[in-house]
Amino acid sequence: MDRGERSVVMGLIRLLPRSGSQQPAERLGDALSSPSPAAPLAEPEPLVVSEPAPGSVTPVASPAPVPDDPAPVRQGTATRVIALANQKGGVAKTTTTLNLGVALREIGHRVLLVDLDPQGNLTMSQGLNPDVIERSMFDVLVHRLPIAEVIEQREVDLAVASIDLAGAELALSAMIGRERSLEKALVDVRASYDYVLVDTPPSLGLLTINAFVAATGVIVPVQCEYLSLRGLVENLNPHVGVEGIVATMFDGRTLHSREAIEILEENFGELVYRTRIRKTVRYAEAPVKGSSVLKYDPSGAAAEAYRELAREIVAAKEAEDGAQARKHA
């Protein structure tokens, strides 16, 4: 790795606070200095939670059947809101959001997926057509529609997106407290889930900023190629940090992929998850069938990779919680 490559990676290190760190907001609040359509942030308005009127819930699409063998639900855990983000596109953010969510549900966690990408790929990956959806996350963020009204029950619960989200940033730019719209929307449903996974667009606009403000942590999918290491994640929440970095599209047969892993581990150490998401056509085939890879090919290596990632994330959180409990004992 030459000097230019190393400087880019070291720049990324400085912009990725570790999860749970209490770094000052000014260290984390430089996102608006990056090229972004977001307007200067204003003071957040008081939180107002609207209740849906009786009988006002309208399904956004034909309901899907509930799985025959739902996993046993684990109760009593604090909700974790995780934003999956990277400014570089094509790094498997949507693939990771869906399959990680389904894997977490398999081991008994209550999971909500939130599609904040105007492309609606997460919504399409569950067999829904964003072009015919009447109510979506656009209405939740801009018109303050209760988020429960845009949640579809599929393999996991999914707050759907539509093409209208493309105009959300312009609509939000004139609103007071615009960066807290998602955080407010989740208040009504947060207690119903153990994990809320937010799929973000490949940009640092108001949609991604909303995800960071609402999140308790950030997971960064990184393709095992050099250019993907240049994706920068900055956040505006002093209580949120990067929980981990997921190496995706890994091909152990190539020296390039192995060197990319070495760069990540050399510079980020324990932040890099041990699980490698290997390159396979199964991840491209599954969305065509409107399903996760865990449903499409449940016994395959692709499905097992996300099961292993889910176990690793849960184990890391349990270890962190245990350490904090001992510290305050």
Describe this structure in words.
45% of the residues are buried. Strand 3 (151-153) and strand 4 (157-159) form a beta hairpin. This protein has one domain (77-327): Rossmann fold (3-Layer(aba) Sandwich). The chain has helices at 3-14, 25-28, 93-106, 121-124, 137-142, 168-172, 181-186, 206-214, 255-268, 282-288, 293-296, 301-327, and strands spanning 80-84, 111-115, 151-153, 157-159, 195-199, 217-223, 242-250, 272-278. It has 329 residues and is of the alpha/beta class. An 8-stranded mixed beta sheet has the order 3-4-2-5-1-6-7-8, sandwiched between helices. It is built from 12 helices and 8 strands. Helices cover 34% and strands 13% of the residues.
Show the helix and strand layout.
Blueprint lengths: L2 H12 L10 H4 L51 E5 L8 H14 L4 E5 L5 H4 L12 H6 L8 E3 L3 E3 L8 H5 L8 H6 L8 E5 L6 H9 L2 E7 L18 E9 L4 H14 L3 E7 L3 H7 L4 H4 L4 H27 L2
Parallel strand pairs: 1-5, 1-6, 2-4, 2-5, 6-7, 7-8
Antiparallel strand pairs: 3-4
Kindly summarize this structure in a few lines.
Helices cover 34% and strands 13% of the residues. By secondary structure, the protein is an alpha/beta fold. It has one domain (77-327): P-loop containing nucleotide triphosphate hydrolases (Rossmann fold, 3-Layer(aba) Sandwich).
